[in-house]
Specification:
By secondary structure, the protein is of the alpha/beta class. Helix content is about 30%, strand content about 20%. The strands form 4 sheets. Strands 2-3-1-4-5-6 form a 6-stranded mixed β-sheet, sandwiched between helices. The protein has a 6-stranded mixed β-sheet with strand order 8-9-7-10-11-12, with helices on both faces. It is elongated. About 5% of the residues have low confidence. Associates with the 50S ribosomal subunit.
Length: about 450
């Protein structure tokens, strides 16, 4: 299920400062911090290091035990899942507002976990407010820490106790072999359903309300010895529809999720077809040089004949001519149709994205391509390719040593790229070219 690293869950009712504490410990802004109860709705994961000990910190949706609202009830389930998977739980309460009935109910839930629970009294910004702290012993959770997440007061002692409570033998090192996968696309295309299907559990809130996933959610996952980091992103919306500051954060986060990924799944709603948002996220992923897979979801809802799949594939290739390299999968997260192909294809394109080919093999292919089709010439001067070398991976970069950059032409580069792909594959990834003029003495 995970990479066997200690997991610390931050739980508590809405608006007690959980996300502010999370961001302070993470050292960067990850959770949305907004003075609106219920803004953090899914669990948010980040990597934290304290005194050379690494652990995973999980921010949860606020718990409101008696609220029957569909989102808030699922937030409660999310927090319970986080508590179930955590090794240490930080229970955050508001030192300014005092104990509430919800705090007492959450404390009752936490005592049943039989796990180390650290009571964190937040918003204690001055010595004068310290007298408020003692009331919280009534929750029956033992020792507590008075902190101010906003100004960082008390965090060192808190982290010391967190680390002391880790079970022995857990891994605090990171694997270099993790494949990072961003699941992107427009709101309500089924991204969270795809993630849940892959994981085999309801790890992310799934709701028919478009835009349910506001935060990017990181989930570690292992299958057949291969570790994955799955990033479920907030769907990209048209800029004209972004009124709330919360939505602005979400768009930025979707772009940063692509930036962090090795492989990007571009999820398309089969019924709605290709949208402007799909084009935008695909363009971002291509420009960033990520390995890409088009995943057409809700395929079970499409009426089909023997040409439907071929026509849909052709339409995608026509809309994304710059991404002819990207495989197209037709799936249904709801009925499980072809879902097993997703991770299989992710592993394949990740290996293609990181593939290196030898200089001798590359030059054999380039030499043969030049013999079959001479490079372009201008005013009697012809492009000469002296030799080629692959100089980078993720994405693969081919450096061509030539006589004159002004003689290069996009159509000939495309010809060379096609020949390289015919021989070496590189499916699922762009191939970049760099030209260097060889100094002649």
């Amino acid at each position: 299920m995970s990479d066997n690293r200690p997991i610390v869950a931050v739980v508590g009712r809405p608006n007690v400062g959980k996300s502010t504490l999370f961001n302070k410990l993470a050292g960067k802004r990850i959770s949305i911090v907004e003075d609106t109860p219920g803004v953090t709705r899914d669990r948010i994961f980040t990597e934290v290091e304290w005194l050379n000990t690494y652990f995973t910190l999980v921010d949860t949706g606020g718990i409101e035990p008696d609220n029957g609202d569909v989102i808030l009830s699922q937030m409660r389930n999310q927090a319970m899942l986080a508590m179930d998977m955590a090794h240490v739980i930080l229970f955050v309460v508001d030192g300014k507002s005092g104990i509430t009935a919800a705090d007492k109910e959450v404390a009752t839930m936490l005592r049943k976990t039989k796990k180390p629970v650290i009571l964190v009294v937040n918003k204690i910004d001055s010595q004068k407010q310290f007298d408020n702290v003692y009331d919280f012993y009534e929750l029956g959770l033992g020792n507590l820490h008075a902190i101010s997440s906003a100004n960082g007061m008390g965090l060192g002692d808190l982290l010391d106790e967190v680390v002391e409570n880790f079970p022995k033998g857990l891994n605090t090192e990171y694997s270099e072999d993790i494949i990072r996968v961003a699941i992107t696309g427009k709101p309500n295309a089924g991204k969270s359903s795809i993630l849940n299907n892959i994981l085999g559990e309801d790890r992310v809130i799934v709701s028919p309300i478009a835009g349910t996933t506001r935060d990017a959610v990181d989930t570690y996952f292992e299958k057949d010895g291969q570790q994955f980091l799955l990033i479920d992103t907030a769907g990209l919306r048209r800029k004209s529809k972004i009124y709330e500051t919360v939505e602005k954060y979400s768009v930025i986060r979707s772009m940063s999720a692509v930036d962090r990924a090795d492989v990007v799944l571009i999820v398309i709603d089969a019924q709605e077809g290709i949208t402007e948002q799909d084009t935008k996220v695909a363009g971002i992923a291509h420009d960033e040089g990520k390995a890409c897979i088009f995943v057409v979801n809700k395929w079970d809802l499409i009426e089909k004949d023997n040409k439907t799949l071929g026509n849909y594939t052709k339409e995608i290739k026509e809309k994304f001519p710059f991404m002819m390299y990207a495989p197209v999968l037709f799936v249904s997260a709801k009925t499980n149709q072809r879902m097993n192909k997703i991770l299989e294809t992710v592993e394949y394109v990740a290996s293609e994205h990181a593939k290196r080919i030898s200089t001798s093999a590359l030059n054999d292919v380039i030499g043969e391509a030049v013999m079959l089709n001479q490079p372009p010439s201008d005013k009697g001067k012809r492009l000469k390719i002296y030799y080629a070398s692959q100089t980078d991976i993720k994405p693969p970069k081919i450096t061509l040593f030539i006589n004159d950059k002004q003689l290069t032409h996009f159509s000939y580069q495309r010809y060379l790229e096609n020949k390289i792909r015919e021989n070496f594959g590189f499916e699922g990834t762009s191939v970049r070219f760099e030209y260097r003029e060889k100094n002649r003495r």
